[in-house]
Amino acid sequence: MTTRRRFLMMVPASGAVLAAACSKQEGPTAAAPAPAPAPASAEPPTAAAPAPAAPAESPSASGPMVEATDPTAVALGYVALAANVDKIKHANFVEGSNCANCSLYQGSAGSEAGPCPLFAGKQVAAAGWCASYVKKAA
Ligand code: SF4
Predict the structure, then answer these.
(1) Ligand 1: which residues within 6 Å by Cβ?
(2) Positive or negative CA dihedral for 56, 61, 64, 68?
(3) From ligand 1's centre to the CA of 91, what distance in Å?
(4) Distance CA 30, CA 86 (A)
(5) How far is CA 108 from CA 65, 101, 103, in A?
(6) How close is the Cα of 119 to the center of ligand 1, in Å?
(7) pLDDT by 10s per residue, the chain, length 138
């Protein structure tokens, strides 16, 4: 009897041990998420696409007006109003000449101001004038 009783007492205990052992094997591995698969793409990582080039500045782009104190303006005798040209200092000045009818003027027809390559990034007055004036071809 002692042996049978002892056997019966051991069966549930061993079952519990087995169940615990099985649950330990399945527990963490079953609950752990599978690692993310590595990207299968054979393509190397691409660098970011280069930003589109800034559009070239158009000749009619706006900019600050040339100031009378601008060193280039002083050197070229630029004035915002051709009527104010110092005609003694600039004897080559011809009445009626101004930036609007100068070949270097890049403003659109009828504009009050526009770019001039002699004053990069700035605008000259259409009614202005400087010693570098070159009559626009008709
Ligand atoms: Fe005006 Fe011509 Fe002189 Fe430029 S070069 S400032 S457009 S007169």
Answers:
(1) 78, 99, 102, 104-105, 116, 118, 124, 128-130, 132-133
(2) positive
(3) 16
(4) 94
(5) 16, 11, 12
(6) 9
(7) 445 444 334 444 444 333 333 344 444 444 444 444 444 444 444 444 444 444 344 455 589 999 999 999 999 999 999 999 999 999 999 999 999 999 999 999 999 999 999 999 999 999 999 999 999 998
With beta carbons less than 8 A apart as the criterion, state whether 58 and 123 touch.
Answer: no
Cα–Cα distance measured from residue 100 to residue 110, given in angstroms and rounded to the nearest whole number: 8
State the alpha helices, DSSP H only, in 77-130. none
C-alpha span between 76 and 17 (Å, rounded): 102
Q: What is the pTM of this model?
A: 0.59
CA separation for the pair 73, 96 (Å, rounded): 20
Q: How far is the CA of 54 from the centre of ligand 1 (A)?
A: 27
Nearest CA to ligand 1 atom 4: 116
Structure tokens at 52: 């589109």
CATH no., domain 60-138: 4.10.490.10
